[in-house]
Structure formats: structure tokens, C-alpha cells
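[agent] plan:
  1. take the single chain provided in the ticket
  2. run structure prediction with default settings
  3. attach C-alpha cells to the ticket
  4. add a short note for the reviewer (M.T.)
[agent] executing step 1
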Amino acid sequence: MHQRLILRNLPRPTRKELVEEIYWLCDTLGLSAGRDIDNLSTQIILKILQHSSEYAGISSDELGSLLSISQGRVNHHLRNLSRSGMVYRNRRLIHLRGRSLRDSIREIRRDADRIFDELEVVADEIDGLVGISENNEAKSLIIRTKPGIIIHK
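[agent] step 2 finished; step 3 output follows
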């Protein structure tokens, strides 16, 4: 599964209101960025929270009706939300990844930690290949060219 994580450091809203907080959370996670000028991803998350009782989920048809948008637009945003790790589909129902929004955020955090752990391993291997280690402060000059990377020491 390919996953896309975007984190933005934004100031929290001054008012503690449901809509303000959910918009901030979704903006911070990059869920409502880009071409989503109507903030439909954020509205979908809000509807899932409001209308999925006892973790029963909500159908994409119901989301379309609640938001007065086409099924195509709902599915487009659900694919993006699924790629971000926030929601998943089980048969015809859409669910938050965790049993709550907080659990969903914790799951996304675990994903990010796994990604950064892997990045750290690869970065350490690359450092070793170019002669940089934690004990050796020697620097290498790396010049990128179209055919590949040339390393000069």
C-alpha cells in the first residue's frame, strides 16, 4: 500500500469549536490542501464522525447525499483519504482507520515512525557508501548529473 503523509505546522484555532478544530486537524495533515477548494475531504471526515454510530461506518452514497455532491467526487476524495491512512473501506462502508479520530491519528503516527525508521537505515547506508560515519566527520561532495551521481572526495 502506497501511503502519502503530509504534515504542516499550522497555528491552532483560537476558538475551540468542532468545525474549526476539524478543519485545523485536516489542514495540518494536508487532507484539504491542493485543489480541494471546497474542503470536501474535511467535510467527509466530519460526516463520518457525525454519522457512523458504534463504528458501523457510512456508505459513500450516504456521504454523497449528506454533502450534495456526486458519487464521483465522493470516491475521488475517499481515495485520497484512504491513501493518507485516515479512512478505509470495508465492503461498501467507509470507516475511520481507528475507532476514533484520536486512534486514527495514532495509527498514522505509527506509519510515519515506520517510514522514518526505514529512511534512517537507508541514510546510514548511504553515509557509509560515501565515507561519512558518526565517528568520521569527513565530508564528501556529491554532484548530481543527468546520467547519475558522481561522488568526489
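[agent] step 4 note for reviewer: The chain has a mean pLDDT of 83.
[agent] ticket updated
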